[in-house]
Amino acid sequence: MTTPVFILPGLGGSGPAHWQSIWEASDSSLHRVVQRDWDHPDLKEWVATLQEHIAACEVAPILVAHSLACSLVAHWVNEHGKGVKAALLVSPSDVESPEHTPPEVRGFSPVPLVRFPFPSTVVASTNDPRVALPRAEYFATSWGSRLVVIPEAGHINAESQLGEWPEGKALLWELRHST
């Protein structure tokens, strides 16, 4: 049975030029976890939606989270913690920092600093406007994640113009085949 992969966009969802949307359009094994309101995120609602999707799986899924969704995964682990094979966590936003993130994400703070019970990789950029690199490194260490730093990629989103982002796909491939 194929391992399902859940795409978890952050605030605002991921538009058509975002690598998450491009991946999803080109690979039928990737499925977006759709939240009711992408622009006014509610932590309890987002965690419950994620849990519904995970609980419905016959095989533990892999999570591919971007930005705010990285905090979502940490909160899900803190509350549920079982049923996931691995996670790729790209550009974890610092939801506790008004300097880096908008007020709409404050409900996701504080970010749980719990060790994940599954393999995970955090991808961070050296110039991400949503999180300082030392903070992203701190998240990775706290979560027990492998850290991959890419230079000058901004928030690793559509504005970064990564297109299909083959380096990210390679990281997902590693997670799919390493566990």
UniProtKB/TrEMBL annotation:
Coiled-coil stretches noted in the UniProt entry, renumbered to this chain: none
Q: Which Pfam families match?
A: Ser_hydrolase
Q: Which UniProt keywords apply?
A: Hydrolase
Q: Which GO terms label this protein's molecular function in UniProt?
A: hydrolase activity
Top-level taxon in the UniProt lineage: Bacteria
Recorded hits in InterPro entries, A to Z, give: AB_hydrolase_fold, RBBP9/YdeN
Segments spanning the bilayer are none
Q: Does the keyword Hydrolase apply?
A: yes
Any keyword Hydrolase? Answer: yes
Record's protein name = Alpha/beta hydrolase
